[in-house]
Every structure is written in C-alpha cells, then in structure tokens.
Amino acid sequence: MPRPSDSSQDPSVDPIVRRVAELGLVLPEPPRPVAAYVPCVRSGSLLFIAGQIPFRGGTLMAMGPVPSRTSVELAIEAARQCGLNALAIASAELGGRLSLVRRVVRLGVFVASDPSFEDHPKVADGASQLMLEVFGESGRHARAAVGSPSLPRGASVEVEVLLEVSA
Amino acid sequence: MPRPSDSSQDPSVDPIVRRVAELGLVLPEPPRPVAAYVPCVRSGSLLFIAGQIPFRGGTLMAMGPVPSRTSVELAIEAARQCGLNALAIASAELGGRLSLVRRVVRLGVFVASDPSFEDHPKVADGASQLMLEVFGESGRHARAAVGSPSLPRGASVEVEVLLEVSA
Amino acid sequence: MPRPSDSSQDPSVDPIVRRVAELGLVLPEPPRPVAAYVPCVRSGSLLFIAGQIPFRGGTLMAMGPVPSRTSVELAIEAARQCGLNALAIASAELGGRLSLVRRVVRLGVFVASDPSFEDHPKVADGASQLMLEVFGESGRHARAAVGSPSLPRGASVEVEVLLEVSA
Q1: Alpha helices in B2-119 (DSSP H)
Q2: Minimal CA–CA distance to B166: which of B75, B97, B66?
Q3: Cα separation of C113 and C65, whole Å?
C-alpha cells in the first residue's frame, strides 16, 4: 500500500488530492448516510453534499452542546472533521479528481449550542479553514453558522457543503 | 367527482401523479404561505419550495418538541405530511405534471427538539421515504436534518425541498 | 457629498438603487464577515450571500432570544436590518447595479427563540417585506424560517439571502 505522502511526489495524482496529502490530511472512507438519503446530488454544476457530522474512525468525536459538554476547541476540530468527511464524499463522486471543484460555494454550519453560546463563527471556522487550506482562493465561500439545541446522534456540529464543479 | 384511484387507470394522467394515487396519497390543496413570501420560486432548472409545516386539513398535526410533546412516530408522520405539502406546491407550479421533476436535490429538515434528542434522521426519513416512494431513484436526495428549539406556529417539523425540474 | 435623496432625481442612477433611496433606506457599508469566509459567492446566475446578523452602525441592534430578551417588534426590525446588510453586499458585488437582481430566490431566516416561541414568520417578514419594497414582484421569494437556541455574537436574528442575477 502506498503511504499517503507518496501522492505528493506522483505527477499523475490530482493536484488537489496532492495538496490534501501535503497538508497531512487523509480523506476518510466517505461516510454513509445514516438514513434514507444519499451522500450527494449533482444538479447542473452544483454538487450538494448532505449534512455531515463529525464521524472519525466510526465514532463521533464530539457530542453534546457547546460549551457545556464540548469545548470550543474540540468543536472547531469537529467542524474540520465534518468538512473532511464532505470532501471525502466529493472525492468519491468526482472519481478522486478534487481539482474538478471550481469553487466552494456555501457552508451551512449547525452548532449544538447552549442558549448563551455566541462563538458559532469560531467553531464554523474549523470547516472554513479546511476549505481554504485545500482549495486556496477557490475555497472561499459564503456561510451561514447557527445554533441548534441538538443534532443527529447527539453530534456537536453538522456541516453542509455546496460545491461548484466542472462539467 | 372522480375518485383519486381513478387516475391510476387513465393514460392521460401524468405518470408520477398516477403513482401518487397508487400509493393511496392525495395531494392536498397547496398550503398558502403564512406570511410575506411565495410557495416556490424557480431559478433555471431549480425549484425552491418554501419550508413546509405539517398542516393537514387546515390544522397542524404535530406541535411542540420531540419527544417530550410529540412522539418520534408522530413526528415521522408529520415530516411525511410536510413533504406531501411540498409536492402539492410543486404539482401546482408544474401544472399537475410532477413527472417534470427530474430529481429531488435536497431536503432541509428542522425538528423541534428537546436538548437530549438524537433521532432527527429517523424523523426526517418520514419526508425522505415519501420522495423515494413517489419518484423512485430520482427521489434520492442530499439532506440536512437538524434540531430547532421551536418552529413557526409551534410545529414539530419543518421541511424545505429543492427540486430539479425540466425546462 | 450628495445626499441619498439626490439619487432619486438622477437618471444615471440604477433604478433599484433609486427605489432604495426613495424608500428612505441607506445601504450600509457592506458588513465584513466575522470569520474565515466571504460576503458572497456567485455561481452561474445564483448569488449566495452569507448569513447576516443585525449589525447597524457597528453594533448589534438586537441580542438574545425572542421574546424573553428581544421583543417581536425589535426582532422584526432586526430581520429588516439583516436584509439591508445583505442588499449592501449584493450592491457591492454588482458594482452598485442592484437592478441586475432578476429575482430574490430564497431567504433562510433563523430567529433566536425561546422554546415556546411560535411567531418566527412574523419576525422573518421584516426581511421579506424589505425585499418586496425594494424589488417589487421580483422580490417575492421562497423562505424557511426556524428557531435557534443562540446565534453568532448573541444576535437575535440571522438572515441568509439567495439571489438570481443577470449574467
């Protein structure tokens, strides 16, 4: 098995996939929907990716509201994991060619929040920064970040991603 | 007045409308917005349907948070009703030709939730399953399901639907 | 410096910008994102504007849940301010030519809500009415209005706007 870092040397590797490897990131197996829907749907040049929760290695890495049960720091990391899971789905859909992503259009970020929580943007930046690191300027997106009393499976964060992709 | 089941025999009836009848479903009168907006907007091939709450016969069939005031089972049924209301709007917009729907692209599902609730996907499946039953493979969609502390009119569920339609 | 009302006389002024002035509205400086994202992204003919909170003159005009900490009346005004902030972003993106907006497609309205709150549509109308006043028929949009336990910076309302614009 080639190690992930190998792809940073291989010219046949998709340049964005290479950047992912250079960043030390490994795309997980695309998470499977936890219910009756599909991971993503393409309509024209838009790729709608279903809301992702922070599964890492099969378990949720952050559960419960922020900050009473999950710290802001962990929630940031969880938002990043949600973003990584979304990219894994995009990569699978695009046959491993993440450079077909022309633009990250929009993130929808839901943070399981105590009523007094105000730092949703800080949490959401975990996913936003990932997009900037992976896609550079094309990773800059519009965003809505809001609170929820609770999320599927008790997750602390859910992130929905909308991409524009090449035909 | 023809009975709904009649349409399953009539070849002039739109095939998806016929399937709706075969499923024993009756599309309600398209719900009217409860405020200053319209039921749906088409932009290019995308049809954005406004968030639907579970009106059935003029009253909300499920109110209050899940599970303390509405059971999961009733909430599932309510999500299905929201989906049916959205399809009624789509049908009206498309002149009764639901087969112009090329794809169900995305559902946004908001569940009025107690802070400890974790089964949002199960509730959202009420709407998702309806789309699969009515549209088959074309009914498979991306989805975000999240919790809300409260929803318009005290509804237990709100569902927003995005469709791709033929030109 | 010309006063805003002057633009209502000037034929070189964009007709929608003129209507904004006639309504007595002044578009603020486009609010800058409070984190790692951009104010808006265009994809094809769609312009996705990031979720806006009710900054007015640099401070949030409404904080905390409705109705316990912010009245419905103030929240309506806050939703209108969110809409105005979104229009300021659209105007900047379109080089001051708001008449390039062909349609307001969708508003997503999040209201920081007490668990018993039911009047989210009334609050959301603050933003919806603004769109109707500014754009007339083209301002009619689909909408989802829901509750949140808390929003960024403690805001009472967040509004996300999707526009269709001319090529």
Answers
A1: 15-22, 72-93
A2: B97
A3: 5
Q: What is the mean pLDDT of residues C12-39?
A: 89
Backbone angles phi, psi at A74, to 5 degrees: -70, -35
A→B contacts (Cβ < 8 Å), by residue, are: 33-41, 43-44, 48-51, 65, 108, 110, 112, 148-154, 158, 160
* Structure confidence at residue B7 (pLDDT): 52
Closest in C125, C141, C145 to B38, CB measured: C141
Does A4 have pLDDT greater than 50?
A: no
Q: Kindly determine whether residue B160 and residue C144, on different chains, have CB atoms separated by under 8 Å.
A: yes
Does residue A22 lie in a domain region?
A: no
Residues composing chain B: 167
Q: For residues B12 and C149, which has the higher predicted lDDT (pLDDT)?
A: C149
Choose from A37, A42, A82 for mutation: most chain B CBs within 10 A: A37
| Residue A126, CA distances (Å) to A79, B99, C36, C160 in order | 5, 41, 9, 20
pLDDT at B128: 98
Sheet holding A40-43, edge to edge: A40-43, A46-52, A157-165, A101-112, A142-148
Is A148's CB within 8 Å of B145's CB? no
Instruction: Indicate whether C116 belongs to any domain.
Output: yes
Supply the CATH number for residue B101's domain. Answer: 3.30.1330.40
| In-domain check, residue A17 | no
Domain count, chain C: 1
Query: Average pLDDT, stretch B61-82?
Result: 98
Please write the tens of the pLDDT for every residue from A36-74.
899 999 999 999 999 999 999 999 999 999 999 999 999
B146 and A154 within 8 Å at the Cβ level: the answer is no
- What local confidence, expressed as pLDDT, does residue A8 receive? 52
Q: For residues C81, C87, C92 and C95, what is the CA-based torsion angle, rounded to 10 degrees?
A: -150
Which residue of A114, A119, A145 is in closest CB contact with C51? A145
State the residue range of the domain holding B40.
Answer: 28-165
pLDDT at residue B1 in the model: 40
**Which residue in chain B has the smallest CA separation from C128?**
B36
Pairing state between β A142-148 and A101-112: parallel
Evaluate whether B38 touches C137 at the Cβ level (below 8 Å). Answer: no
Burial class (CB within 10 angstroms; exposed 0-12, middle 13-18, buried 19+) of A48 = buried
Integer-rounded Cα Rg, in Å, for chain A is 15
Interchain contact, C118 vs B153, CB within 8 Å: yes
Question: pLDDT digit string (tens) for B120-154?
Answer: 999 999 999 999 999 999 999 999 999 999 999 99
Helices marked H in B53-119: 72-93
Residue C109 lies in a domain: yes
Tell me the pLDDT tens digit for each residue of A113-166: 999 999 999 999 999 999 999 999 999 999 999 999 999 999 999 999 999 999
